[in-house]
Specification:
The complex is a heterodimer of chains A (152) and B (141). Chain A is mainly alpha-helical. Chain A is built from 6 helices and no strands. Helices cover 72% and strands 0% of the residues of chain A. Classes of the chains: A mainly alpha (152), B mainly alpha (141).
Amino acid sequence: MLVIAALICGFIFGLGLLISGMVQPTKVLGFLDIFGAWDPSLAVVMLAALVVSGLGFGLAKRRERPILARQSFLPTKIAIDRPLVIGSALFGIGWGLVGLCPGPALENLATLSPRVIAFVITMTGGMALHDFWQKHQLKIRYARTLATAGDG
Amino acid sequence: MANFTPVSAAIGGGLIGLSAALLMLLTGRIAGVSGIFGGCLGLGMSDKGWRIAFIAGLILAPLIASLIGFVVPSPQMRVSWSVIIVAGLLVGFGARLGGGCTSGHGICGIARLSVRSITATAIFMFTAIVVVALTRHVHAG
């Protein structure tokens, strides 16, 4: 059931990106181009999405648990830390360069565009690189903790 | 504002919001595409099924829409291959490091009034606007 629900949600999400025009990178760049022929459509997309999801999240909060799962998986971090700031800044640079973010990039795989495929491959590479680097950092930190513990 | 399409933007945005709301109500998960997709990559993770299903639904949407006569636009990317490669790496690495992308932070996070997500969205909007300004108006002109 969880898998079917996720499939339907992904499908609705994809329809939303398609109907709103956000699958087209030039449309997204038109929003980001505030000094050119500015196209505010993306702001309307976000606003409409925020209203509907906000209502849904409000309903979800009232429930003890989700309909198809034992518990909710909500983010627990609250601090504005360096990874959040640096990661978001890098993400924005990449987004501004071509006008693709992960949702529309994956959805556009359906068009079999070689440029989209190349983008998704390098995007996946970037994610894997991050996860590998983070694991490595954790190992170093763990080794340091062991070393200082040994000193004591 | 010649290209402004408020009606289709509102309908499409409403559907994106509906998807996020349903995913939360039904499965208790956040509809953040970079998080959902990123979670497919890790080896040995047990909850991959729903993640793969969500991505499959996302890719199926334009295929089924085109079957019923909806014109699916072919994506326009007027940049060199090297820019595509760099942009892909930045988007992937940045979204993982920053803990989310346009959907996870920009929609779900803001809808939950998360200060982290509001900050993240402000930052990536800002750097993206600067990059577009530089590439379209400074570098080009």
